[in-house]
Specification:
364 residues, alpha+beta, Gyrase A, domain 2, 3 domains, 6-stranded antiparallel barrel, 4-stranded antiparallel β-sheet, 24 strands, 38% strand, flat, signal, Flagellar P-ring protein, flagellum
């Protein structure tokens, strides 16, 4: 437990140095974004791990259509291959992408295929939200897991029914967008905050020596590209590399499944007293087998035997957690309780409910 909080102290309790971040890492430029693509395709070359066509008739349909487009007439034929699978193919068309550029694609089985390992995606068109084809995908799939099975056992590691094809998509249509004609662009903060937005406004106006930026709300700063005296591309190149110190909120984030606790530097706790303990309920079954004597009449029966008990954990007693002025003092006070991380999560919840935790409390 002490080692756990020591790690937290090493991460967050260094010297209080103002860390400056590039504006490009804090905002998104409206209009400069990617577009989602999706397609429906067929994976071939699987080693008997494909769709069962009886349970996935759509696989047979797409395979028949594919073969007919290639000049193979399969009408009326009864085929049941096990090395094909129907998949959904997804990708993101990046901003300013040009025809001929390559993008990564993700492939996921939608039938009852057991694995896509070693499969090859056949040429698949990828459509945008407007129904137009913007890219095509094809290539060998790198599956995200493996599976093996025998007559009486099966082992699966990871997710073998999903994978990626690096550079497996090729852009065929560009998104019509003339960036050079923009007059005003909005900077959308990833974490809205009045102080951070004001600092971005000040840094931009100071860099251009004129009021070209204006804070609209905690999540938006507008930038007048016409008053900067340069092209929009050169203006954003200059803006995105400006350094500011973002304002950080005091937060405590806990993950109940893994017992992970992460505290921000500005977290504070008022002076409180904490007592922690718990009950352990133990139930054990010891079934007994009763058999009749040899050559006697009767039958074998199982008689239940149960042992139940409740144990009271000693707990920590009533301990004082002093209100610290920095994160180091806070960790020292919590560490003095000497409890496990999962118990510490419950203590932090209770302190927050008592109004003594001065931070945003987030539970995952």
């Amino acid at each position: 437990m002490k080692r756990f909080f020591l790690i937290l102290a090493m991460l967050f309790c260094g010297p209080a140095v103002a860390e400056q971040i590039r504006i490009k890492d804090l905002v998104q430029f409206d209009g400069v974004r990617g577009n989602d693509l999706v397609g429906y395709g067929l994976v071939v070359g699987l080693n008997g791990t494909g769709d069962g066509l009886r349970n996935a008739p759509f696989t047979e349909e797409i395979m028949s259509n594919l073969l007919e487009r290639l000049g193979v007439n399969v009408a009326g034929e009864d085929f049941r291959p096990k090395n094909v699978a129907a998949v959904l193919v997804t990708a993101t068309l990046p901003p300013f992408a040009r025809s001929g550029a390559q993008i990564d694609v993700s492939v996921s089985a939608i039938g009852d295929a057991k694995s896509l390992l070693g499969g090859t995606l056949v040429l698949t068109p990828l459509n945008g939200a407007d129904g137009q084809v913007y890219a095509v995908a094809q290539g060998t799939i790198i599956a995200g897991g493996v599976s093996a099975e025998g007559a009486a056992a099966r082992v699966v590691q990871g997710v073998p029914t999903a994978g990626i094809i690096p550079n497996g998509g090729r852009i065929e249509r560009e998104v019509a967008f003339d960036f050079s004609t923009l007059e005003i662009i909005r900077l959308a903060l990833r974490t809205p905050d009045f102080t951070t937005a004001a600092r971005i406004e000040t840094a931009i106006n100071h860099a251009f020596r004129k009021p070209v930026a204006a804070m609209i709300d905690p999540g938006t700063v507008t930038l007048d590209l016409t008053g900067s005296g340069a092209s929009p591309a050169h203006v954003l190149q200059k803006v995105e590399n400006l350094l500011i110190e973002p304002e950080r909120r005091a937060r405590v984030v806990v993950d109940q499944r893994s017992g992970t606790i992460v505290m921000g530097e500005d977290v504070r706790i008022s002076r409180v007293a904490v007592a922690q303990g718990g009950l352990t309920l133990r139930v054990e079954e010891f079934p007994a087998v009763i058999q009749p004597n040899p050559f006697a009449e009767g039958e074998t029966v199982i008689v239940p035997r149960t042992a139940a008990g409740i144990e009271q954990d000693p707990g920590t007693g009533l301990a004082e957690v002093s209100g610290g002025t920095n994160l180091s003092d806070l960790i020292a006070g919590l560490n003095a309780l000497g409890v496990a991380p999962h118990d510490m999560i419950d203590i932090l919840k209770t302190i927050n409910a008592a109004g003594a935790l001065h931070a945003e409390f987030i539970v995952n």
